[in-house]
Amino acid sequence: MTMVSRRDALGWLGGAALGGLLAGVGAVAALPGEGLAARKTLKEKAPALAAPAWIPHRLDAAECAPLAYAGYWKDGLGCCYGVFESIIGSMGRKYGAPYNQFPFTMMEVGKSGISEWGTVCGALLGAASAFALFWGRKERDPMVTELFRWYEKTAFPLYDPGAAAQGVAGPLPTNACGSVLCHISVSTWCHAHGIDAASAKRQERCSRITADVATKAIEILNAKVDSGFAPLLSSKSEAACMSCHGKGKPSPIAKGRMDCTPCHSGSAHVQDKFRNHP
Amino acid sequence: MTMVSRRDALGWLGGAALGGLLAGVGAVAALPGEGLAARKTLKEKAPALAAPAWIPHRLDAAECAPLAYAGYWKDGLGCCYGVFESIIGSMGRKYGAPYNQFPFTMMEVGKSGISEWGTVCGALLGAASAFALFWGRKERDPMVTELFRWYEKTAFPLYDPGAAAQGVAGPLPTNACGSVLCHISVSTWCHAHGIDAASAKRQERCSRITADVATKAIEILNAKVDSGFAPLLSSKSEAACMSCHGKGKPSPIAKGRMDCTPCHSGSAHVQDKFRNHP
User: Fold this and answer.
1) Rounded to whole angstroms, what are the CA distances from B260 to B105, B188, B238?
2) What are the residue ranges of helices labelled H in B101-199?
3) What value of ipTM does the predicted structure carry?
4) A175: three-class secondary structure by DSSP
5) Residue B15: which pLDDT band, with cuts at 50, 70 and 90?
6) What are the φ/ψ torsions at residue A77 (nearest 5 degrees)?
7) A106/B116 touch (CB, cutoff 8 Å), yes or no
8) pLDDT above 80 (res A20)
9) In this predicted model, what pLDDT tens digit does every residue of A89-142 receive, in sequence order?
10) Rounded-to-integer distance, Cα A216 and Cα A269, Å
11) A197: which chain B residues are within 8 Å (Cβ-Cβ)?
12) What is the pLDDT of residues B162-208, one digit of tens each?
């Protein structure tokens, strides 16, 4: 019995889990007709049985970005799946379990800001969820904040799939949306450039942002794995508002770290659209 | 060899996966000293090897709500973990794998609207993620929309843990926040009642909402399992705005399903807070 035959036969289990599993089966093996010698051999090989650990590995963003882009388009699974699968799926392809055991299609949940609701950008949720497999909140929160701040400030999309384009080929217009919310991200881009939010061009934008977010997330993940991660970005409006409304301040009613500007600047977009619509 | 000894020995694998796994090992079993009779017996028992399926099961919301509440407080894992674990963890406790194989602590990601960012309410993300393990977007999106609309309209919190309270015991003030965003949900409640967003009272509110969201999500899940789910709730503002800004309409720039009122009504909260702060 070779390792290959074990691996093939065990199908949905990845390589890293195999030793423990076969050892576990061996440890209770008392098959009719099985000799003592065979049982002894199996027992001697048996290590302690444990779940495979979620250990982060460095990734190559240049390899993963096209996977994130393609993941967006795969069966319409979208941005959150695309980013998450490009990270955790890539670890699975290299290292087996536990990475390749994750029920990946669950991550479709983030598509269009959670089931079309336009809340958090699903690409960002995919990255934050991947981080959360490895790091608890004290370590993860600064990583997420760096990624989210970068998203608020960056004029998207950056990635160009070239000949691999699945929606619309060629350059796309860009803007920095100032928000991590899907609704604001998509709608400000569509408003700025006169583009239909339901068009292939808008889908192409979001699929390219999926690659962009995967690239930035992997940069942060690699720095963290190398113990070199330090957050760089901040928000002037968050700092200003939280100086009164944050924890321990005079009016500590505000929760969150989103840039306050899109909703609290009194812009034309947040005027009374129900009675005085322009 | 009893089922109990197999279960114990296989440790991190749950009950539902056992048949397929042992059969899979049996199908390639050619252990030294093993007799032909044993191999034949194993092969006859071997079903096709496949990953354990994510099949939804009915749950008892009255059993799960206290688990969701307690999950919020467990190691500070928060609302998203609390809801998700009360649903998928409960299935795991009853049915084993694949439910009990999920890396549950990953769901801490939704705490405070994704790593403190105040985007989508993490309790809602936990429920939507649980739905996404079983249903693709065409079936899931109406379930999520029903849950999210209910959240916008409901005066929270409803659940009272009684003597099991972990933050603050007794009744809490309520309000309907009109939004699925953590920032608006928490901050409007704190503003309305003069409560510190970093206080134990606010945490108690969110832990009770964790139980409330689990209860509503299980009501929707059970109806779906019974093939009786039909969405009931709608949003006047979404309908009004999308009649011009939705797909196929004159100005199709808007993405999302959130109630438009909190940010587009020109209320005092969205006036220019940077220059003309009251």
Assistant:
1) 33, 16, 6
2) 122-132, 137-153, 182-193
3) 0.84
4) strand
5) very low
6) -75, -25
7) no
8) no
9) 999 999 999 999 999 999 999 999 999 999 999 999 999 999 999 999 999 999
10) 30
11) 247, 252-255
12) 999 999 999 999 999 999 999 999 999 999 999 999 999 999 999 99
Beta-ladder partners of B175: B156
How much is the pLDDT for A49? 61
Confidence of residue A37 (pLDDT cuts 50, 70, 90): very low
Beta carbons of A24 and B11 less than 8 Å apart: yes
Q: Does B43 touch chain A (CB under 8 A)?
A: no
CA–CA separation, A174 and A158 (whole Å): 8
Residue position matching structure tokens 């609302």: B79
- CA–CA distance from B51 to each of A11, A14, A184, A200, B17 (Å)? 8, 11, 39, 35, 7
Distance CA B244, CA B231 (A): 23
Closest CA to A179 of A187, A171, A168: A187
Instruction: Map residue A32 onto helix, strand or coil.
Output: coil
Largest distance between two CA atoms of chain B: 87
pLDDT at A52: 80
Could you give the C-alpha distances from B261 to A52, A100, B193, B232, B257, in angstroms and in order?
47, 42, 21, 20, 12
B269 close contact with A: CB closer than 8 A: yes
Count the alpha carbons within 13 Å of B275 in the hemisphere toward its beta carbon: 5
The SS3 of residue B181 is strand
- Is B34's pLDDT higher than 60? no
d(CA B126, CA B111): 10
Q: Terminus-to-terminus CA distance in chain B, angstroms?
A: 75
- Contact state of A25 with B27 under an 8 Å Cβ cutoff: no
pLDDT at B259: 95
